[in-house]
Amino acid sequence: MLAVKKQKEVLLKMGRLDGKVAMITGAASGIGRGHAELFAKEGAKVVITTRKKVAEGTALAESIKKQGGEAVFIRLDTTSEDDWKRVLDEITKKYGKLNILVNNAGVSLAKTIEETSLQEWNWLMNINATGVFLGCKYAIEVMKKNGEPCSIINISSVDAMVGEAGLPAYCASKGAVWSLTKAVALSCAEAGYNIRVNSVHPGLIHTELTDKEAQDYGITFGQYEKLFTAAIPLGHIGEPIDIAYISLYLASDESSWVTGSQFVVDGGYTTK
Questions:
Q1: What is the pTM of this model?
Q2: In the list 48, 75, 83, 228, which could disulfide-bond 27, CB 3.0-4.6 Å?
């Protein structure tokens, strides 16, 4: 364990994102927060966005700055076209460019297809799928003008690949993100833009989202974790940093020949 920690400390000092501007949605907690902290340590100027957790997002930006990184918080409703335009305009005015977008913001709903209302379906799809569509659409408008390598990373889920009876709306939304990623990657490549687009598919990660899923199922997160762990070959659930490291590779120039691909980080869950 000590060797692993030392290795991670070395990686954090490498500056793999030096000179890049990175925007992360849903970055105030969980997987998004893990991205913000790691990207800042790797030299990126980090734009933290979230809709509701304004205090948490602001505090995270201040924490990163105290540790020697560069970060700013901007409120963003990912389902609002006007908000996307406003935020990207603020970013370009402040930094002159955008190199990295991590479409991470998302919600979940643990209900069967029979229990799910149309209103709930539309709410979840609007955040999880439409929000990613808007992010890709307007980030590309900014990225294609800066003449530098750019990367869009869409956070999907293993539930885009396997079904879960209690998460039909969530599965559908993450499947949409997966397919959208491939189409947008091809579009950028065919247009000759220096923009790569890939998706990351986490397995069970302990965040507020999974706490809510467990609550919807009427069980504690500990019980939820136990159920999943039995199906994970590596024998434990993941942490936000496990997802952030995959995204770090995709955000860096190390992945310059990688686009339209999916990266599964699930402890082996989908191998069965």
A1: 0.92
A2: 48
